Prior knowledge:
The structure is a single chain. The chain is of the alpha+beta class. The strands form six sheets. A five-stranded antiparallel sheet has the order 6-7-12-10-11, with no helix packed on it. The protein has a four-stranded mixed sheet with strand order 1-2-5-3, with helices on one face. The protein has a four-stranded antiparallel sheet with strand order 13-19-18-17, covered by helices on one side.
Amino acid sequence: MIRYLRNTSLLPYNTFGVEAMASHLFFLQSPGELKEMLDFPGFSQMSDDMCNLLVLGQGSNILFTDDYHGVVVRNEIGGINVTYEDETSVMIEAGSGVVWNDLVEFTVNRGWWGIENLALIPGTAGAAPVQNIGAYGVEAADVITRVNAFHLEKGKWMALDNRECGFGYRDSIFKRELRNKTIIYSVVFRLSKKAQPMLEYSGIREELERMGISDPSGADISAAVASVRRSKLPDPEILGNAGSFFKNPVVSETIYRELSGKYPQLRAHRQGDQYKIPAAWLIEKAGCKGYREGMMGCYEKQPLILVNYGGATGKQILGFSEKIQESVYSLFGIVLEREVNVF
Ligand code: FAD
Ligand code: NAP
C-alpha cells in the first residue's frame, strides 16, 4: 500500500534544511503506486484537481519559502535495467528515484562512458532531465534518449524523446511548460562502450595529474571529479545548500567586450556567438563572496552557493538571494537568473 502522511515536515526532504509543512505527503515506490495515489480517497481535493502537486526527489534543487498546501510526492521509484546493448553502446533505463551518483557508479564500474563527469551531483535520476544537470563540460541531455512520464492533468502516460525534452542550459520543458504537470517515472540513457574522456575543464585534468593518471578510465574521471567536488563544495549534510543558486549568465558579444574591456581579468567561455560569464566571479566582484547575514550567507569557497548555517527560513534565503541579484545588477547591469526551484 502506498505510504501517506498528513501535515508533515519537509525539513528532512530538502538539502537547504529549511522548515516547511506539506499538507499531504505520498511516497511513490513504483509506477504502479501512481494509480493507488490517484484513487486515494479525497485525492483530487487534496491536490486541488492536480493544480497543487509537487514531485520531490532528494530536494537538492529546491527552496521552500512557505508551507506546501497540496500534495507532495516523494519519488522513490528504483531499478536500473539494461534495455539494449551492442558492441559499442548500451542503453539503460533508470527508475526516477534512483540516486544519481549510484547510477554513475553503476555505469563507470561496467566501463560505460557518458556520465562519469557528473559524479557526486546530489539528487535522483528523475530530476536529471528537469534541469538538464551538468558539470565539467557534460550535460544529462548529451546521453538522455527518452524520458517516461505521467501527465497528471491529462491522466496520460507519455514518452518524450531527447528533442521533445527541449533541453537548454540547466533547462528543459519540465522546468517550463510541464512544470509540476508530470511525474517522471524513468529515464533512458545511451552510453558508450568506447572511451570518450571529456577533460576540457582544468579542474579535472589537474586532479588526474595529481593522482598520477595519464590515461584515465571513466572510474578514474569520476573519482577525480568527486575529489574536486568534495574539496570545493559544502556537504548539505553539514551545511544546508542547494548547489549553485544562480545560473551563469550568457551574454552577447557586445556586452562581453564591454565587460572584458573594463575587467581584463574576466574569464568567460564562448557559447556559439555568445559568452557565458561565471556568476561566481560577478558575485565576488560585487563584494558578496563569503558575505554572511544572520544564519545565511554566500559560501566562502564558491559564492554561487548560498548556505543555511542553521535555522534560516526559506523566505530569508530568498530575500538574501535578491540582495545578491541587486548587487550584481547595480555593478554590471546583468540579471542573475535563479537555478534553484523556489516554492
Ligand atoms: P529536487 O530538488 O527534489 O527537484 C528539483 C525539481 O525537479 C523540482 O522542480 C521537482 O519538482 C522536479 N522533479 C524532481 N523529480 C521529478 C520527477 N520524478 N518528475 C517530475 N519532476 C521532478 N546541479 C547540476 O546541474 N550540476 C551540479 O554540478 C550540481 N551540483 C550540486 C551540488 C550540491 C552540493 C547541491 C546541493 C546541488 C547540486 N546541483 C547540481 C543541483 C541538484 O543536485 C540537481 O538539480 C539535481 O538534479 C536535483 O535532484 P533532486 O532529486 O534533489 O531534485
Ligand atoms: P569552475 O570550474 O570554477 O568554472 C567556473 C564556471 O566557468 C563554471 O560555472 C563553468 O560553467 C565555466 N567553465 C569552466 N571551464 C569551462 C570550460 N572549459 N568550458 C566552458 N565553461 C567552463 O566551476 P566550479 O564552480 O568549480 O564547478 C565545476 C563544475 O561543476 C561546473 O561545470 C559547474 O557547473 C558544476 N557545478 C554545478 C553546481 C550546481 O549546483 N549547478 C554546483 C557545483 C558545481 P558551467 O557551470 O556551465 O559548467
